[in-house]
Amino acid sequence: MSQIFPGRYTAQHDGPLVVFLIGMRVNKLWAFSKWWPVAMAMGPMIEALYRHPEKGFLGGRTLIEWPGVTMIQYWRSFEDLEQFAKNPSDPHLGAWQRFNQAIGADGTVGIWHETFAVEAGKFESVYGNMPRTGLAAATGHGPITRGRNSARERMRTETSAPVEEFTAQ
Which of 91, 94, 105, 162 lies most in the core, judged by the most C-beta atoms within 10 Å? Predict the structure, then answer.
């Protein structure tokens, strides 16, 4: 079991980052020979990224949501993510080509991704009595200190529009 950090923490990351969501969905359960290779393709990609942090991958986590799988990834920049996706010596391009040859538009397996570029200071996080998870696991975390207690204080930037405060009713 992961170490629990009692109290309130926040991710410690000062620069910009990219949040990349990627997933697959089994559309035809009986087409095991089609969707299993797609499901297995992500493992070698993630292993390569953890072995080579210079590629810009900060970390991620996998969520199983049958009939699919989603991975939340944190990247240093969109350029790093794009370079990994297009580089023939990295494992993504070959997996993508195999997907298009074996499945294409036959409907047996769905794939998707969403990419969000986040400017420095335009995100905030809180983790209460949790192990390191999400952005904090990818970049580091520290206790919430005076002046960073509320979401508004953690979201502070000189260029951002005011963030509306949420009050539970």
Answer: 91
